[in-house]
Amino acid sequence: MGNSFGTLFRLTTFGESHGVGLGAIVDGCPAGLPITNELLQQALDRRRPGQSTLVSQRKETDTVELLSGVENGVSLGTPIGLLVRNVDAKPRDYQAMNQAFRPSHADYTYHAKFGISASSGGGRASARETVSRVAGGAIAAQVLQRFGVEIVAWVAQVGSVHAAIDAATVSRQAVDANAVRCPDPSAAAAMIELIEATRKAGDSVGGIICAIARGVPVGWGEPVFDKLDADLAKAMLSIPAVKGFEIGSGFAGTTMVGSAHNDALYRSADGVVHTQSNHAGGVVGGISNGESIFVRIAFKPTATIMQAQSTIDRDGAATTITGRGRHDPCVLPRAVPIVEAMMALVLADHALRHRARAGFSAEPTTHV
Amino acid sequence: MGNSFGTLFRLTTFGESHGVGLGAIVDGCPAGLPITNELLQQALDRRRPGQSTLVSQRKETDTVELLSGVENGVSLGTPIGLLVRNVDAKPRDYQAMNQAFRPSHADYTYHAKFGISASSGGGRASARETVSRVAGGAIAAQVLQRFGVEIVAWVAQVGSVHAAIDAATVSRQAVDANAVRCPDPSAAAAMIELIEATRKAGDSVGGIICAIARGVPVGWGEPVFDKLDADLAKAMLSIPAVKGFEIGSGFAGTTMVGSAHNDALYRSADGVVHTQSNHAGGVVGGISNGESIFVRIAFKPTATIMQAQSTIDRDGAATTITGRGRHDPCVLPRAVPIVEAMMALVLADHALRHRARAGFSAEPTTHV
Amino acid sequence: MGNSFGTLFRLTTFGESHGVGLGAIVDGCPAGLPITNELLQQALDRRRPGQSTLVSQRKETDTVELLSGVENGVSLGTPIGLLVRNVDAKPRDYQAMNQAFRPSHADYTYHAKFGISASSGGGRASARETVSRVAGGAIAAQVLQRFGVEIVAWVAQVGSVHAAIDAATVSRQAVDANAVRCPDPSAAAAMIELIEATRKAGDSVGGIICAIARGVPVGWGEPVFDKLDADLAKAMLSIPAVKGFEIGSGFAGTTMVGSAHNDALYRSADGVVHTQSNHAGGVVGGISNGESIFVRIAFKPTATIMQAQSTIDRDGAATTITGRGRHDPCVLPRAVPIVEAMMALVLADHALRHRARAGFSAEPTTHV
Amino acid sequence: MGNSFGTLFRLTTFGESHGVGLGAIVDGCPAGLPITNELLQQALDRRRPGQSTLVSQRKETDTVELLSGVENGVSLGTPIGLLVRNVDAKPRDYQAMNQAFRPSHADYTYHAKFGISASSGGGRASARETVSRVAGGAIAAQVLQRFGVEIVAWVAQVGSVHAAIDAATVSRQAVDANAVRCPDPSAAAAMIELIEATRKAGDSVGGIICAIARGVPVGWGEPVFDKLDADLAKAMLSIPAVKGFEIGSGFAGTTMVGSAHNDALYRSADGVVHTQSNHAGGVVGGISNGESIFVRIAFKPTATIMQAQSTIDRDGAATTITGRGRHDPCVLPRAVPIVEAMMALVLADHALRHRARAGFSAEPTTHV
After folding, report:
1. Residues 300-319, chain C: which have Cβ within 8 Å of A?
2. CB contact under 8 A, A124 and D78
3. How many helices (H) and strands (E) does chain A have?
4. Partners of A240 in the beta sheet?
């Protein structure tokens, strides 16, 4: 229960941080799309730790292996299984933590819910499960390529350091140009400084990731409950450490009046309908309107810090806990591919759902 | 597709704003709960227009009729059907709009998606469909009463007017004490003034609704995708006019460091585990931790305004549109029961999902 | 839970036999299809009791009312709500039965499962809930008409009376030509005689219904679990009183050898692929192959009979029960439209599911 | 799409016959159940080919590896991933078949549906995918052990050879006592003879498998669509080569009258409700009644035979095909564990679904 995402294009994942490995099954991928180990590996390489001094120093090669659903580099339409084995698990680092619950970490809630929990690391609650999401998102992106959809995410804020980015033109190359994945060079420098200072202090810091999807056709979304923005919200809030989501004008739009907030419609010379502004963020009434879909996601500071914290142990006795092992002072840079993956999964699923019913009325009756 | 909400406790709705009526089927309600027309009617009465001069002057009695699933005021465990007939539909008011698409309204996206749309009002996109949600939420609340869960929502902000509320103690009585549903009397007065000025200007204004759920036991939520906060985010973003969602510290927490943001665990004298602070907003790792669940929802200003706006008509020709009929300059007061209903639906569903597997390991083997 | 059928074209029903009424919501119907009260009424008229002396004498007009999702006789793509109010409920007839459980009836199992049950009739377990299915099936048939699919069901056996029917040419007109819905006139006469004798004896009799779907395109079905024949089996076993399902050669094929059972493939002059024989019944590997889909459904004799039977009451004490009220000695004639409706629901859902992914590889990339 | 089975206890599978491997994810398994590689391996060993001269001579070790969701031999409540690598794939044997479609095999329908198909063997349509089902079923059986449910299946008929079995007492030991898995020794001998003769003739033969579930409590099943028998029917019809399903009296009951078919209720001295007969097969109104659940499943003769058959190739040209490689002349013996696995999956899922809502009315209100 709870480990599947999507209706027609469905990702089901498994795997704990210190178990045998992580993996997934993608069910519903159309046949005929180019899928290879290299494609998935590229996606995972963007996510894995050890890419810079900024992030966790755990050395995982995160080598992905396709197990089914593909032949000669092309999807068969059958379920695609994939596996990433854990290589660098160090249970020893988590020993002290086994007895105590880390504050604001899922240690306690998993233990309370299941009556049992993985002895090492965060188990299923560890952000390591996002490996499976990134792999699934890479497959979803192949579906979207057929529709001409492009997704770019970037770090827009770390702590109080804000970046100035033109969402309309930002590209993945610009995003990946530095270790903090912020395409504003001066802001990036300040972010790197802040993260380093935070690491030395044995603390952690949060931030905001923005994402944009360009080229989404009109009509995706299934109101009134499976609205496109509602599914995006669920997708993003499911990412570890996320505490907020907004689309278009978001919370800022709450202080605007309708005459200023409304996006006037017009038709361009080529007959395509556009809006003058895009406070909607590309989704109106839960359905895409053809404009860019723009979202902002709030990440809290990582729960596991090096500083000592007061807490309780599994017997309920008061105790102190100090972090050991390899931890990210800031998860934002690594979360960028995860946000892109979740967006791709939502859009691919809705692409298929819309396709199931679209253009029905135009079809001729073959016979009565 | 897209009109069902929930896995075990599932609400399916139907109905357009100017059709025969709205309704729903609630499937999965346990047997033995008190459900009556009066219970549902009370919930709907809190929502309907015409309650004050602040909101839409459409006169709907919103009389709900239970059709099945209940006998002698008690649920049978079978699906509960309910119907609310439209009484005061005035298609004439929408005539001019039939030819043109209202900016930032679902007119255009519905037409583009389905190739056809209801000729009157917003059809299925109209906020009137929320009648069904409120009725379903009232049934969900009966499930939650068995667990001792209480939900309260209130208007926290209209335009730039902010209220100061103690979320720990706010009650529904205080919320319903005034027409704008803000339990801070001075802020409420300012909000009423602002709304009236906005109405006279033929414009609209947005705001923020807060909601709290007290008494939620530990353990609700199904990670990694059906996390409790992820499902809450989807629920709220599915409400018309919502553009943002945050839980706990939300976007404000992005500037905090972990040592300050983490909620330290302790055990009280009665053996219950608590946290010193509640930046988590009651959900950690996607699972409830026993603390109050606190969320904030951003509403954009209503799309339909009285002022003239430039747009296009169904042939794509440029035109102007001016609103007529009865419209809310601010939907926030009426959205309060809708937010509570969506929260109740999510929590009731997760209560049942957790119940399906909880405490399994403690059960004896009857025989091998 | 359990009251929805279908993934993309989904029917959700409600209603007890002696409650306010029965109804349904059809979610996922494409826009642009002709749907009217008359269309649904025709379908319900084929089902309702009182059509002949053979079946239950309960006088229900079964008047259906469309509540949403349709405008000017055309579907909007939004959910279609429909309602059939109960008119001729006679709780008094069921009074004696309230204390005792009818053998082989759902009285006991519903009471044990829910801890409570409707006091009158069979409640939700009554075959009356099939009204909603027939209405939903009529809408599904409109989807299928676009693909040129035709469905015909008929009574093939009552008790030991067998009919000889050419499935390839049987039509609904021939089926509806007599009250027992068997298009073999001599068998029909014998069946009518048998049913009358059974009624006089205060007993009941079972039989077999056959159904064929012609014109189903190749490719419908979603292996390995949502195979087309697997979903058909579930659909038919969900009909009250059904105890068996077979497709193609069914149980008879278990004694054949492969060289005789296999259906050889060939291509006709017009390039269409056919099979020489059709032991498969139109489904191979869970996917339709273009040949007619042929199924046989086994109905047990109705549980409620007029003869006295020994049983227990709600306190567990031994007692005797004698049927009163209006009961069918044979449900087969009225079950024919229900079988057709369930087949239509399965096929419509799979039509949309296949459409979501079909022909994907042929689509050009709009841009990279 | 289509590769998941179950709502709360959900099995999702992947894998082609000649790909890297087969596997599955089991989501929803409660925490605290004993799950080990040995447990799964035992289940798979009962299924794999090469166990006797009767079945396919493909040498697969079918070694299963648990990848997640279990620690120290106990389930964590998180998704359980498992993998079985293909070892003995011989693509060469299928070369000639690549060009032609095997009659009554899924070659053609998969190719038509997906526009592409695995070049070797049956791909996803091969019965090899049932490895994943058997592994998932072994986990489901651990859930059922907590309820005291026992499942036994056996071969009841091969071709025209019928066995005489007492379903009430048959045990798995008796079933596994011979290679054909028929616990009637004389019938088993005749079956073995028949299968050998069929193999020599280069042909194949079908048969019937019976299965019984003892100890199922009252109340499992979610009418009106997710009835327990309806889900069992879907489960069994999803197994490759299955063409029919019946429960209790099945097709034979269609010739009985109600007074003979009805199962009279009585209460035994220990207060448990029983039925005098069990024509219902343990399910009434779609809900289990506490009696043994008894089903019969019809298997057609295997499509792939050694004899030459006329067919068409991928260009539609007429051709002849002759089977090579390793094929089962009769799949029945190996299908026995598959039938048990599917029954376990259905029952485990319904156990949890019932548990979610059962006994609700008895719970006290903790506070209002």
Report:
1. none
2. yes
3. 9, 18
4. none
Write the DSSP assignment of D162-177 as a string of letters.
E----TTT--HHHHTT
> Is C205 within 8 Å of chain D by CB?
yes
Q: Angle, to 10 degrees, between the axis of helix D130-145 and the axis of helix D37-47? A: 130
Identify the closest residue of chain D to A119 by CA–CA distance: D71
B28 falls in which pLDDT band (50, 70, 90)?
A: very high
Q: Percent helix, strand and coil across chain B, each rounded to 5?
A: 30, 25, 45
Looking at CA atoms only, how far is residue B221 from chain A in angstroms? 8
Identify which of D46, D61, D124 has the alpha carbon closest to the alpha carbon of residue D335. Answer: D46
Rounded Cα distance, C305 and C323, in Å: 6
Give pLDDT tens digits for C345-366.
Answer: 999 999 999 999 988 765 544 3
Neighbours of B342 (CB within 10 A): 33
CA distance C304 to chain D (A): 8
**Residue B290 forms contact with C (CB below 8 Å):** no
> Which residues in A lie closer than 8 A to residue C39 (C-beta atoms)?
none
| Chain D residues within an 8 Å CB radius of B287 | none
Fold (topology level) of A4-361: Chorismate synthase, AroC fold (3.60.150)
- Comparing CA positions, the residue from A236, A145, A155, A135 lying closest to residue A195 is A155
Nearest CA to C240 out of C125, C363, C121 is that of C125
Q: How confident is the model at residue C56 (pLDDT cuts 50, 70, 90)?
A: low
Interchain pair D146, B357: CB under 8 A: no
Return the H-helix or E-strand segment holding A82. strand A80-85
User: Considering chain C, what is the average pLDDT of its residues?
Assistant: 91
Which tokens belong to A162?
């804000």
Q: Which token pair is D107?
A: 């070659």
| Assigned token pair, D73 | 């031999």
Residue A254 contacts B, CB cutoff 8 Å: yes
Instruction: Name the nearest CA neighbour of C295 among C251, C238, C349, C351.
Output: C251
Comparing CA positions, the residue from B98, B327, B114, B309 lying closest to residue A277 is B309
Q: Is there a contact between D15 and A113 if contact means CB atoms under 8 Å apart?
A: no
Q: Is B355 in CB contact (< 8 Å) with chain D? A: yes
Q: Which residues of C touch A30 (CB under 8 A)?
A: 357, 360-361
A138 to chain D, closest Cα gap in Å = 18
* Residue of A63, A149, A116 whose CA lies nearest to A352: A149
Residue A173: CB partners within 8 Å, gap ≥ 6?
A: none
∠ CA A199-A202-A205, rounded to 5°: 60
**Which is it for the CA torsion C110, C114, C115, C121, positive or negative?**
negative
Cβ atoms of C17 and C89 within 8 Å: the answer is yes
Q: What is the pLDDT of residues A100-150, one digit of tens each?
A: 999 999 999 999 999 876 665 568 888 899 999 999 999 999 999 999 999
The pair of structure tokens assigned to C136 is: 């939903």
Instruction: Tell me whether residues D248 and C249 touch, CB distance under 8 A.
Output: no
Best mutation target among D262, D295, D302 (most C Cβ atoms within 10 Å) is: D262
Inter-chain Cβ pairs, chain B and chain D, closer than 8 A: 72
Contact between chains at C243 and D253 (C-beta distance less than 8 A): yes
**Residue D106 contacts residue C285 (beta carbons within 8 Å):** yes
pLDDT at residue A365, rounded to an integer: 42
Q: In this complex, do C118 and B78 lie within 8 Å of one another by their Cβ atoms?
A: yes
Helices (H) and strands (E) in chain B, counts: 9, 18
CA distance D103 to B203: 69
The reply to whether A360 touches chain C by the CB within 8 Å rule is: yes
Residue A232 main-chain phi, psi, to 5 deg: -65, -40
**How far is it, in rounded angstroms, from Cα D275 to Cα C333?**
29
CA distance D105 to chain A (A): 17
